[in-house]
Amino acid sequence: MLYPLSYGGQVMRVQVYPNRAVTSAPAHLPSPSSPSMVPVPHRSVLAPNYRPLDITLRSGEGVWLTDIHGHRYLDCLAGYSALNFGHSHPQLVEAAKEQASRLTLVSRAFNHDLLLPYAEALTMLTDTETMLPMNTGAEAVETAIKAARKWGYLVKGVPEDQADIIVAANAFHGRTTTIISFSTDPSARDHYGPYTPGFTVVPYDDADAVAAAITPYTVAILIEPIQGEAGVIIPAPSYLPSLRALATDNDVLLIADEIQSGLARTGYTLDEERVGVAADLITLGKALGGGLMPVSAVVGRHDVLSLMTVGTHGSTFGGNPMACRIGMEVVAMLSTGEFQQRARDLEGFLGERLAELVDDGLISSSRHVGLWAGIDANPALGLTGRQICEGMQSRGVLAKDTHGSTIRFAPPLVIERDELATALDALADTLHAARS
Ligand SMILES: Cc1ncc(COP(=O)(O)O)c(C=O)c1O
């Protein structure tokens, strides 16, 4: 079948087969930034592993996004917290431009002038000893898992191939085959087996369950300080300290996955600070790349990360000059404390407005910390999370559902109080409209 496809005012013919598309493109395609580019009218060229809102965005600045028709939207997802500093933050953009014209990639086969300064800056910011740079969050988690297993065999003395890591139900740590092997979400896991062994899943926010699961083969407890994808589930303040004590007492590593909770989202550089804990290894990602590119890292104990010796682990892009440059700017921005403060300053207002929605019967419950909230719509309204997000979209606010009728709310930390009010008004109006 042939579909005409208008691309920058030129028409090309797209031949669509069930699982692949063959295009005969015009000789000179316009640049993707051409304002006349229209969205592709069929989807077969793109694997359907996402179902985005029906919107095509073209530019962003701060908390605001603009679509191809010129409509503006307030971003209340912030790239799943990768955009803590907002879209196109001038300091980050300038740094990226300057670095792009100087040096972007050398691979770890050669040193470059930013790698060590970046490592020093990031470890200083996080009060850790050593860092190992990667790219995506899932890679950082994989790295922490590998480091913990290696520590288990070489230092703790666990028999080879017997290491076990305790993880939590409903966690989200990424999409690799090993990570989804211990996911309890069927949509993330089903039909991707055979699964990687070596993980014990226990209920979240249940330190007794962790204690009961520890064996002589346990090498680590891997935990999100707050479960983001699960709906911003905030455990009891004693949870992480209890895990810290269990880890110390049983010669087990505590790994905090701060890829979403870290880097100012909850009002602290690391969320573990909020509850007075220092993990042995911490995974960082998302906002570490300033929303410009994937940048992740594992930071933590030198005696553990130093086991990742020459040739035993690596990444072509991990620690590249561009990533280091952006990471250093992010560290510099976080070092001022401004973004942590912004999240803490608006936390009270966010909580008050959510409490009002509970009082009005529009939401049944909510959880929030810093500028991060999980909001459960009142089931009596009969709205799915998707429908709520569509309602908010029609009111100029972009948010994302998690599961069922739960909305996650995580605007860029540069949001102003009146903009936050606008976003919450859009939520309230959407829910009111369903009731009337
Ligand atoms: C806590 C946590 N860990 C790991 C990841 C995976 O990060 P990435 O999507 O960059 O691989 C995510 C992503 O949402 C996350 O929230």
Give a structural overview:
With 436 residues, this protein is α/β, with parallel strands linked by helices. The protein is 34% helix and 19% strand. The protein has 3 domains: 46 residues, no CATH class; 123 residues, Aspartate Aminotransferase, domain 1; 246 residues, Aspartate Aminotransferase, domain 2 (3-Layer(aba) Sandwich), CATH 3.40.640.10. It contains 14 helices and 18 strands. Strands 7-13-12-11-10-8-9 form a 7-stranded mixed β-sheet, with helices on both faces. The N terminus is likely disordered. Pyridoxal-5'-phosphate binds next to α4.
Key structural traits:
alpha/beta, four-stranded mixed beta sheet, Aspartate Aminotransferase, domain 1, 18 strands, Aspartate Aminotransferase, domain 2, 436 residues, 19% strand, 3 domains, 14 helices, seven-stranded mixed beta sheet, binds pyridoxal-5'-phosphate
Q: What would CATH call the architecture of the largest domain? A: 3-Layer(aba) Sandwich
Number of helices: 14
> Which quaternary structure do these chains form?
single chain
Distance between the termini: 46 Å
The helicity comes to: 25-40%
- The CATH superfamily of the largest domain is Type I PLP-dependent aspartate aminotransferase-like (Major domain)
The gross shape turns out to be globular
Bound molecule types: pyridoxal-5'-phosphate
Task: Reconstruct the topology from this structure.
Blueprint: E1 2-7, E2 10-16, E3 21-24, E4 57-61, E5 64-67, E6 72-75, H1 78-81, H2 90-100, H3 115-126, E7 130-134, H4 137-156, E8 164-168, H5 177-181, H6 186-189, E9 199-202, H7 207-213, E10 218-223, H8 239-249, E11 253-257, H9 271-274, E12 281-284, E13 296-300, H10 302-305, H11 321-335, H12 338-359, E14 363-369, E15 372-377, H13 385-394, E16 397-398, E17 400-401, E18 406-409, H14 417-435
Parallel strand pairs: 6-16, 8-9, 8-10, 10-11, 11-12
Antiparallel strand pairs: 1-2, 2-3, 4-5, 5-6, 7-13, 12-13, 14-15, 15-18, 17-18
The chain binds pyridoxal-5'-phosphate.
